């Protein structure tokens, strides 16, 4: 999946353009009263019909770019290899395989190869982050109880 390897932060110029475009697009979207709209391509004078939902998605992309956040577009139903899933989670491939075999992350087998839905990897990563946050709060509370941390 090349898209995950090519993720990069927007340049300062891209951020500036994204800020200007986001503000304009956000105000235009509020005025649209249907499920689709026609937009014009200035360079070619072509016009295309686009779902408003796609315009809202473009608006989300522009907002993230204006904040300097890297963007990646991955179809929800995309399946990845164990190596790519391990890279996304920041762990070794053998550790990921153990997580799969322990039932912590769902997967399917294609022949001898395991495939994991991208959305399942993101769901597991989110669970890990929430668990880490709970542990940090528990540690802070314990430190407060024994007087190591003054709030």
Structure, explained:
This protein is an alpha+beta fold and 151 residues long. It has 2 domains: 2-66, no CATH class; 79-145. It has helices at 2-5, 12-31, 52-66, 82-89, 93-101, 118-145, and strands at 36-41, 46-51, 79-80, 108-110, 113-117. The strands form 2 sheets. It has a 3-stranded antiparallel β-sheet with strand order 3-5-4. Strands 1-2 form a two-stranded antiparallel sheet. A hairpin with a 2-residue loop joins strand 4 and strand 5 (113-117). Helix 2 runs antiparallel to helix 3 and helix 4 crosses helix 5 (93-101). The protein is extended, with a radius of gyration of 22 Å.
Task: Map the helices and strands.
Elements: H1 2-5, H2 12-31, E1 36-41, E2 46-51, H3 52-66, E3 79-80, H4 82-89, H5 93-101, E4 108-110, E5 113-117, H6 118-145
Antiparallel strand pairs: 1-2, 3-5, 4-5
Helix pairs in contact: 2-3, 4-5
Comma- or semicolon-separated keywords:
151 residues; alpha+beta; 2 domains; two-stranded antiparallel ribbon; 6 helices
Number of domains: 2
Helix content: 55-70%
Separation of termini? 46 Å
Largest sheet, order of strands side by side?
A: 3-5-4
Strand count, sense and barrel status of the largest sheet are: 3 strands, antiparallel
Low-confidence stretches: none
Number of strands: 5
Q: What's the alpha carbon Rg, rounded to whole Å?
A: 22 Å
Topology pattern, helix = H, strand = E: HHEEHEHHEEH
Strand content: 5-15%
**Count of helical stretches:** 6
| Secondary-structure class | alpha+beta
Shape: extended
Mean pLDDT: 88
